[in-house]
Amino acid sequence: MKPQVVIALLCTLTASAQQRQPAKGPLRVLESNPRWFTNGTGRAVYLAGSHVWQSLQDNGLLIKGAVSDPPPKFDFDAYLSFLERHNHNFFRLWRWETTKWTDNYTGREVKYCAPHPWVRSGPGLAADGKPKFDLTKFDPDYFDRLRSRVTAARDRGIYVSVMLFEGWEIQFSDGWRNHPFHARNNINDIEADQNGDGSGLEFNTTRDNEMGRRVAELQHAYVRKVIDTVNDLDNVLYEIVNEAFGDSTAWQYAMIRSVKEYENKKRNSIPSA
């Protein structure tokens, strides 16, 4: 994970002249060649884009000197304009889970991230000194931003991969101590770090015990809320998780099934293969 622009290329094809038209969809597998997507027109669609880590939440990730709380505001409209100028039509809507962490890539600067999916109502203070999360109540500011940014991208002909979870930070930073699913940071007595080693890797695993089932229930509720928020938009793809550790495979498939089962009930459903 290096501080550079990453060019994302997916096997699909569209003319750049159509770039500024609203994105058509939802994307599905092209029957004549299953390596490609199509948008319902019978033509293949080519997805190409440029990546930044601030496309959804404001955060100081990999930005030298960005240590303010609240974190620096990201100019999302300028980002979309950049994509347009370069005839790009795809980006990942990046998800960051922890509220505060030490960024080793910028000289161990302390960084912050906001907003998050759940309300910080307390009672009590979390490890970062702010009210604890209530993991049963969603924060409308987060989901309003999610919808408005996907909508703005659609109107410029840009497809969005909505990232549901992010696994890198709990492997390679000290972010778990400020993660919403750390017991110190929520009012729901939820602790995903079941072996108590301080890493929280179990957040991206399936655990057949009471706490594991409670964590999974809250995760699935969050996924359903995301789908409720953006499913009717034609430019949406879903990404389960970024860079989760190797033992997360079963959990990832459980999340894939959750997305498909719930999405199949919605207007823009695509029948599962």
Search tags:
globular, disordered N terminus, 273 residues, 3-stranded antiparallel β-sheet, 5 helices, 25% helix, single chain, 13 strands, alpha+beta
Give a structural overview.
- With 273 residues, the protein is of the alpha+beta class.
- Helices cover 25% and strands 19% of the residues.
- The protein has helices at 76-85, 140-155, 168-172, 210-230, 249-263; strands at residues 7-10, 28-29, 37-38, 44-45, 47-50, 58-59, 90-93, 100-103, 109-114, 118-119, 134-138, 159-166, 236-242.
- The strands form five sheets. The chain has a three-stranded antiparallel β-sheet with strand order 2-3-4, with no helix packed on it.
- Helix 2 packs across helix 4 and helix 4 packs across helix 5 (249-263).
- The longest helix is centred in the C-terminal third of the chain and has 21 residues, at 210-230.
- It is globular, with a radius of gyration of 19 Å.
Termini separation: 33 Å
- Range of strand content: 15-25%
What portion of residues is helical? Answer: 10-25%
Strand order of the largest sheet: 2-3-4
Structural class: alpha+beta
Shape: globular
What's the helix count? 5
Note the main sheet.
3 strands, antiparallel
Rg calc:
19 Å
Low-pLDDT segments: 1-19
Give the H and E element order. EEEEEEHEEEEEHEHHEH
